[in-house]
Write a structure and sequence with these properties.
The complex is a heterotrimer. By secondary structure, chain A is mainly α. Chain A has 11 helices and no strands. By secondary structure, chain B is α/β, with parallel strands linked by helices. The chains are: A mainly alpha, B alpha/beta, C alpha/beta.
Chain lengths: 297, 329, 260
């Protein structure tokens, strides 16, 4: 049947665009996606838009409640903490630390995991098994424990905990990449490419990666929500971000002693963490749902 | 009395933009002890029709018919659940790719004993287990597997396709159905195995007087084993009649084209010459032609073909075409 | 007509080394030799496990032979050298669903073999792709479509376009017609016959459908368990089979072809 441009109103999207259309269908997912984008913009631009610097002390206004309380002050919209630092600015700055760094962490572990997984899939036999499984030992150690170990060796600080979280996330990506690539290699079009004379790298880049991208992205969103929780938890334990930094977990740690007199110092960072994790999970769910729908269609 | 009497069945895909009529007013009748072939290429809606009869379509399909009688009971007036309850007692179905239809984690014995009908067992519950096993063995014998001991302990992936299909037929026979619907049972098999399965179905038909609705896309294959044939194209009814009528005197141009593309017709053609083929390809669901859906491809199509033709009957040979080949015989 | 493809003593055995002490050797294909001329079609018939897919893979270069060699126009084809081979020997696969990369448009798909093996400029490539698509009966507009928009028959035509775009001399059809509907199959056969006339191709058809084989092929080779049972002209073998296995195959298919 001749399919030329008689039906102008129909679009013929590429598979990735089709995925995007399926993704857009569910309103709740789009809401989560909107929040995700909002958080990303906040993370990128927070130093420019915060009303005060996050470490600036206002000694006249210690432990001010949020502006909707009777004692609150509208110039400190969400109140201040026990050192007079504005909560709103600290929360916004914390976005770039907790949320933004989780993004970076997932990106780095994704790249490393995909590279190792691809090499594992391209080779066979003992080399392949070795590459696939040598990082599995990390899977057996919970991320917090690993972070404590690394901190004990290298000392406390946000950088060191980031290394711990990156290492914990890599094995998942290695396994997923290796399985997806091996499955794609069994298909006929890869054989056809190889027979055309394409090198393995070219096959990987052109034929295989566009088709496994969706699986990688859905795994990345899962990893990101766990990364956010890990960074916050380590900050709360005092192993990650140290006191002056505005990381949400560290803010929680700061406020927990003052919970009865100044509850907003605790619930505000907690709500922020909840918001970020829910947004990430909604995006991840939407992505997996869109994948499932597009496979069925 | 007709076993199954369906008149003008339509299956519509409910979608937000515009509803699509995947099956457009198809009629089908089956008598007791009859083997009917339902022939159509991909996209003809034959599998949808079979699934609509058995009642396993999802909510997104809407089934409508002027008449849908099963052994005299009018099923259109009942709800979907009641319809399914009546039909599932007497109708069984087997599918393509039998190895994929069997549970890969259970042995054949476990699956067969699960399929055995509880109503036919009697006695206390410890006796039922033994009876289930005996029933399973007798089912295997009915489909011609004599060495049941070897077969029962294996998993589906250890057996070949023909054997798996026989086991599927055995499971279908467990309920003693009156009608067996076989949805392309041999599509994935080679010719020797195909012959085995067809011979089994023919013997079941003769020995137990079981009616069979044999769905296939290959007219050639089916003519040897069936009494009557119904042909469908792109969801529409094309032709129906006895196998002899259809094969020797096809009235509809599509049936003629199907017969011309089969190897037997080509035995008379010189080797490596062009085959007779209809131009174009099967329309997809989103772009179905109006009226007779063969219109764009039909060599005899004219202006009137934008209106769907009515079904005409000539000595039991039904066809729906404005410009049929009846006059040329 | 000159001999195009000459195969001598080709065989393939696999080593099943479950444990390092007991290496069993599984012979997928015993040594065979045959020739194919231009404008000719050789059909290879056999049940699963007979070695016909192994033979196809050996001919196209996807596997390395254990013994023997393949000569094209007198030149030996080196195993493992894809660039040399792919210009002359191409293959069409059975499963049209996985034979096309789902995330590339047809234009990009057909561009790839040209990029890797020829020095044509972009315009020349574009023109060649358009011509090839027209030869197989598709439109030039189809270059921007993705594989999931096509039906099974059209996907096989795209496979065929990918095979002929490098102007090869031998095309191997690995059960390419088995999954098509009968009317589409006839169209495809007509197309293949036309192309064979126009381009002087030699086909190696692997199939188990004797009806197509009878119509389409000049010579036939019957394989069973890796060994050649019979080889010769199609009409001779199908009318007067000598080997037991061939007789059984024909009986099974004829049995279904006879109308009662």
């Amino acid at each position: 049947m001749a399919r030329d441009k008689i039906y102008l109103e129909e679009e013929f999207p590429s598979p990735l665009l089709q995925l995007w259309h399926n993704f857009k269908e569910t309103p709740v997912v789009m809401l989560g996606f909107g929040c995700f984008v909002f958080l990303t913009i906040l993370a990128l631009f927070s130093p420019l838009i915060t009303p005060y610097a996050s470490v600036e002390n206002h000694l006249d206004f210690l432990l001010l409640p949020p502006a909707w309380h009777n004692d609150g002050n509208v110039s400190f919209l969400l109140g201040t903490d026990n050192l007079g630092r504005d909560m709103l600015s600290r929360l916004m700055h914390g976005t770039s630390l907790t949320f933004g760094l989780s993004f970076v962490v997932v990106l780095i572990s994704l790249v490393i995991g995909v590279v190792i997984g691809s090499f594992s899939a391209l080779t066979s036999g003992i080399k392949s098994s070795f590459l696939n499984h040598f990082l599995d030992v990390i899977l057996s150690i919970p991320s917090l424990l690993l972070a404590i170990v690394i901190v004990a060796i290298l000392g406390t600080g946000l950088n060191n905990t980031l290394w711990a979280i990156i290492m914990v996330l890599i094995p998942q990506f290695v396994h997923i990449t290796r399985n997806a690539v091996t499955e794609e290699f069994r298909k006929d079009y890869v054989l056809a490419s190889r027979l055309d004379g394409a090198s393995s790298l070219r096959i990987l880049y052109h034929s295989v990666f566009p088709n496994i991208l969706e699986k990688l992205i859905s795994q990345a969103t899962l990893a990101q929500s766990s990364a956010i929780l890990d960074i916050a938890a380590l900050g709360f334990l005092g192993l990650g971000a140290q006191i002056p930094m505005a990381e949400w977990g560290a803010m929680l740690k700061n406020g927990i002693d003052l919970f009865y007199i100044a509850p907003w110092t605790v619930y505000l960072p907690g709500l922020a963490i909840l918001f970020a994790v829910v947004a990430t999970n909604l995006v991840g769910e939407g992505m997996r749902h869109a994948l499932k729908v597009s496979k069925e269609a | 009395m007709n076993l199954l009497d369906i008149r003008n069945l339509s299956i519509e895909l409910k979608s937000a933009t515009n509803p699509i009529l995947a099956v457009d007013r198809v009629s089908l009748t089956m008598k007791e002890g009859e083997v009917r072939g339902l022939v159509g290429e991909s996209g003809s809606g034959k599998s949808l029709l079979a699934q609509a009869i058995v009642g396993v379509l999802d909510d997104k399909w809407q089934v409508d018919a002027d008449r849908f009688h099963w052994r005299g009971n009018d099923l259109m007036r009942l709800s979907l659940d009641e319809r399914k309850a009546i039909i599932s007692k007497d109708v069984a179905m087997i599918f393509q790719e039998p190895m994929a239809c069997l549970d890969p984690t259970m042995t054949i014995e476990e699956q067969l004993t699960e399929a055995v009908d509880c109503d036919q067992l009697s006695g206390f519950f410890w006796q039922k287990n033994q009876q289930r096993k005996e029933n399973a063995i007798s089912l295997l014998h009915k489909v011609g597997i004599k060495q049941h001991k070897v077969c029962l302990k294996k998993y589906p992936h250890q057996l070949n396709e023909a054997l798996c299909q026989r086991i599927m037929i055995a499971m279908a026979l467990a309920k003693r159905p009156i009608l067996l619907i076989a949805d392309e049972p041999t599509a994935a098999m080679e010719s020797t195995n195909q012959g085995q399965i067809f011979r089994l179905l023919a013997s079941l038909n003769q020995l137990k007087n079981m009616s069979i609705l044999l769905i296939s896309h290959d007219l050639e294959n089916v003519t040897h084993w069936t009494n009557t044939i119904t042909v469908m194209y792109s969801g529409q009814f094309v032709e129906a009649g006895t196998t002899k009528q259809i094969f020797e005197q096809p009235f509809h141009p599509y049936t003629r084209a199907l017969i011309d593309s089969s190897p037997k017709a080509n035995m008379s053609l010189p080797a490596k010459s062009r085959l007779m083929a209809l131009p174009g390809s099967i329309p997809i669901l989103q772009h179905l032609p109006i009226g007779c859906r063969l219109g764009p491809r039909c060599p005899r199509a004219q202006q009137e073909c934008v209106i769907a033709p009515k079904v005409q009957n000539y000595h039991g040979h039904q066809f729906s075409c404005h410009f049929s080949l009846k006059g040329s015989y | 007509m000159p001999t195009l493809l000459q195969v001598s003593n080709l065989s393939k055995s696999f080593k099943l080394s479950r444990n390092w002490f007991n290496r069993k050797v599984f012979t997928a294909l015993d040594p065979i030799s045959f020739e194919v001329k231009a404008h000719q079609t050789l059909a290879i018939v056999g049940e699963t496990g007979s070695g016909k897919s192994t033979l196809a893979k050996l001919l196209v270069g996807a596997e390395l032979p254990t013994t023997g060699n393949i000569k094209l126009n007198g030149q030996t084809l080196q195993p493992g050298n894809f660039k040399q081979r792919c210009q002359h020997v191409r293959m069409i696969f059975q499963d049209s669903g996985t034979t096309l990369n789902p995330s590339l448009t047809i234009g990009q798909l057909l561009n790839e073999p040209l990029l890797l093996n020829t020095d044509l400029t972009e315009d020349a490539r574009h023109l060649l792709i358009r011509e090839t698509l027209q030869k197989v009966g598709l439109l030039a507009d189809h270059m921007n479509f993705y594989p999931h928009m096509f039906s099974g028959g059209q996907k096989q035509r795209i496979s065929l376009a990918r095979a002929i775009i490098l102007q090869p001399q031998v095309i191997i059809l690995d059960e390419a017609l088995a999954s098509l509907d009968p009317s589409l199959r006839s169209q495809m056969i007509n197309l293949l016959l036309d192309l064979q006339q126009q381009m002087g191709l030699a086909y190696i058809l692997i199939s188990h459908n004797l009806g197509i084989v009878r119509h389409f092929s000049d010579k036939i080779m019957v394989l069973s368990q890796g060994q050649v049972m019979e080889m010769g002209e199609t009409s001779d073998i199908l009318n007067d089979p000598k080997h037991q296995y061939t007789k059984k195959l024909i009986m099974n298919q004829r049995f279904q072809l006879l109308h009662r």
